[in-house]
């Protein structure tokens, strides 16, 4: 992490400000250190990542488990190798649609929620040339460790801050962020999706945009019903709102005044290796929602 984000940090336990009390700095980046809040809560910076000791969702993307089983690059190659040309193009267009909105921010703080494998930031960093302070967040310390190395290779000039934390309780000051974006990060939060959107609205400045991306499905289709059963079996009843258009828009309207909807792609799903809930042969749409 870099000292430039200290002013927007707050303790997730008590809400007070932090002070940097220990630091080992390399090329302006704090690679090891500690921060302490006004009430005495202490958190560490390790390998360049500010760690709030968040726990991964065991039933979903347990990145640490995957990266323990195989090399980071091998894991990425294995996932990418199972994609068809159509799937690769759809993902590329989806990411480009989010980046198109994100590049409208020319200064301030940009927060990436649930960065995962860093696919969205990779695309943004290929072309960014403005003084934006980027904050990348994810539950997994391990995946951020991997992202930090890879993203430095893409654009070493841009300072990206990495925070391992819970996106439903962001360690970020209220009304301090100029844009929040995510590549299906809220969707992957399942039953915690609304909590994540609510906290994103809290940290955003008045009128600042949330660039959310999601997938719509036909709620009456067999695949959608499989989703409902999966969620019920995993004690996440109600999380099916994540793919139902009217439900997703209703959640955004609770916390934002306006929502602009942009369909990036719609068609019939192909088989995706590793999908939690395969929906091959059914209609879906990739959508970018801009909420303000």
What does this entry show, briefly?
With 292 residues, the chain is an alpha/beta fold.
**Count of alpha/pi helices:** 9
What low-confidence regions span 5 or more consecutive residues with pLDDT below 50? none
C-alpha Rg (nearest Å): 19 Å
- Our measurement of the CA-to-CA distance between the termini, rounded to an integer number of angstroms, reads 28 Å
Q: What is the approximate shape? A: globular
The computed structural class is: alpha/beta
If strands are numbered along the chain, what order do they take across the biggest sheet? 1-2-3-4-7-6-5-8-9-11-10
Could you state the oligomeric state of the chains shown? single chain
Q: What kind of sheet is the major sheet?
A: 11 strands, mixed
Q: What is the mean pLDDT?
A: 88
Please provide the ordered H/E string of secondary-structure elements. EEEEHHHEHEHEEHHEHHEE
| Helix content bin | 25-40%
**Total number of strands:** 11
Strand content: 25-35%
Description:
This protein has 292 residues and is an alpha/beta fold. The chain has helices at 63-69, 72-81, 85-102, 119-125, 141-154, 185-188, 193-203, 222-233, 245-255; strands at 18-26, 29-37, 42-46, 49-51, 108-112, 132-138, 160-164, 179-181, 210-217, 259-268, 283-291. The chain has an eleven-stranded mixed β-sheet with strand order 1-2-3-4-7-6-5-8-9-11-10. A hairpin with a 2-residue loop joins strand 1 and strand 2. Helix 3 crosses helix 4 (119-125). The chain is globular and about 55 Å long. The mean pLDDT is 88.
């Amino acid at each position: 992490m870099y000292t430039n984000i200290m002013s927007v940090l707050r303790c997730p336990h008590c809400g007070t400000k932090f002070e940097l009390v220990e630091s080992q700095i390399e090329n302006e980046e704090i690679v090891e250190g500690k921060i302490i809040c006004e009430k005495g809560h202490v958190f560490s910076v390790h390998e360049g990542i500010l760690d709030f000791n968040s726990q991964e969702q065991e039933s979903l993307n347990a990145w640490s488990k995957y990266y323990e089983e195989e090399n980071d690059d091998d894991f990425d190659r294995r996932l990418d190798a199972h994609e068809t040309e159509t799937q690769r193009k759809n993902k590329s267009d989806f990411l480009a649609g989010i980046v198109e909105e994100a590049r409208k921010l020319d200064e301030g703080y940009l927060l990436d929620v649930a960065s995962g494998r860093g696919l969205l930031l990779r695309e943004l960093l290929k072309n960014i040339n403005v003084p934006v302070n980027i904050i990348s967040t994810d539950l997994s310390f391990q995946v951020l460790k991997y992202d930090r190395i890879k993203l430095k290779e893409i654009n070493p000039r841009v300072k990206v801050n990495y925070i391992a934390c819970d996106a439903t309780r962001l360690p970020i000051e209220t009304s301090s962020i100029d844009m929040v974006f995510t590549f299906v990060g809220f969707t992957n939060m399942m039953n915690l999706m609304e909590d994540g959107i609510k906290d994103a609205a809290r940290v955003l400045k008045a009128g600042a945009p949330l660039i959310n991306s999601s997938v719509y499905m036909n709620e009456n289709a067999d695949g959608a019903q499989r989703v409902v059963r999966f969620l019920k079996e995993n004690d996440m009843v109600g999380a099916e709102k994540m793919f139902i258009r009217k439900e997703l828009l209703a959640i955004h309207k609770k916390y934002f005044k306006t929502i602009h909807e942009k369909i990036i792609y719609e068609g019939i799903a192909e088989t995706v290796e590793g999908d939690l809930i395969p929906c091959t042969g059914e209609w879906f749409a990739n959508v970018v929602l801009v909420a303000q």
